[in-house]
Amino acid sequence: METTAVVVGTGNVATHLTRALLNSGVRVLMLYSRTKAHAEEAALSSGVPSTYNWRELPADADFYIYAVSDSALSTVLAQELAPAAIHLHTAGSIGSEFFPQHKPRHGVLYPLQTFSKSKPLDFRSVPLFIEASSADVLAEVNRLALMLADKVYESDSQQRRHLHLAAVFACNFVNHLYAIADELVQSSGLPFEVLRPLIVETASKIEFLSPRDAQTGPAVRRDESVLQKHLELLSDHPAYQKIYELISRSISGF
Amino acid sequence: METTAVVVGTGNVATHLTRALLNSGVRVLMLYSRTKAHAEEAALSSGVPSTYNWRELPADADFYIYAVSDSALSTVLAQELAPAAIHLHTAGSIGSEFFPQHKPRHGVLYPLQTFSKSKPLDFRSVPLFIEASSADVLAEVNRLALMLADKVYESDSQQRRHLHLAAVFACNFVNHLYAIADELVQSSGLPFEVLRPLIVETASKIEFLSPRDAQTGPAVRRDESVLQKHLELLSDHPAYQKIYELISRSISGF
Question: How much is the pTM?
């Protein structure tokens, strides 16, 4: 029996999720964005019909997946639609109690990954964390999740919040450190490319070593003379100086 | 004509450098560590004779490479040995003016990479930054560097200092964020493994996008409600709370 879905949202997560649904044989009946231009763009790039008018959404899909920003989530969930279907959100930091009463069969499908529209990735390797309002909904969500990816974990809202927080450190903050490093390297007249082997190796090391064992650099060696020189080099960047001091102190005391 | 070298140091950099020298056909005459146990261990793992007695080092090598901590560097460079040979250090933050007068032919061979003894890596992909006391020494150092790796850049001490600083952000600090994420994930009862696809993808994205364009997460979306929830979740970890606030603020203002 064919599985059908509607995807609400056309951002980074929605785009990758739609692609994964299509790749795994789910029929995506329609995409929704509140912005006309985004809806049109998403239809073009996915080949799935889209709308920016809530009333045009079909009421007969098996799954309604809400992949929108946390702040937009309550608005879209408040819309009454398909009360017998399964409604899922994809947010790391929002509990399953967030669903209104007119969506009794609901759950969460949280992909622990960073998505940018323009960067393709293998969705099958994305760990999915699921939660559901009842055992039978959980079985359905689990079936859908396993169509999309190889690793599916059941986790409650509290665990998912911690995961999301951990992901902010391991991904969003890490990427910002790349951006700072990029700025520093370019200001010395060298291209960012020279840092790529280091960045890849740093990520690859933790397949072999725990992050604690993989730690290198002046802070873990407590090399005060290098730390002082680096703080001086950052004298034009007081915000980076503070980040340098705080993380170095955290490494030394870890 | 065979190239010969002596490696002073048996730490992470020295270990990988020795392996790379051997792999590229350089004859490593001897390794030195001031610690007997380290010298013996290095001899066992590399197959190269080693000593902890400075006077046993051969005086006829082409290159003497000092891969020791910044704080140990002045002590080993102060030793008088092989005044006609080329003496190189591998430190990112130390200028070439650091060499004493009795080592007139000197330079720097700085590998921009993170090395842990137990993690193998392909040294040919490590960017090497070189500097030398004269044009003829530079030619020799360049020849040696190209035996070891594919990308060799000439850079002065000031550029190298900036590179080293950038590497601390892109590698050492990044790894510490992995360690924090590890702790957060494990405290919620999940294994660190669940974060690995995210970590690898975060590093892989910047081959396609600049770090600025690759930025995702609540801080770049200025999602105050998630930021507040995350700070509450970190209430038992005031040091991580500070790191969270500081980096989020830096991302929002970037």
Answer: 0.90
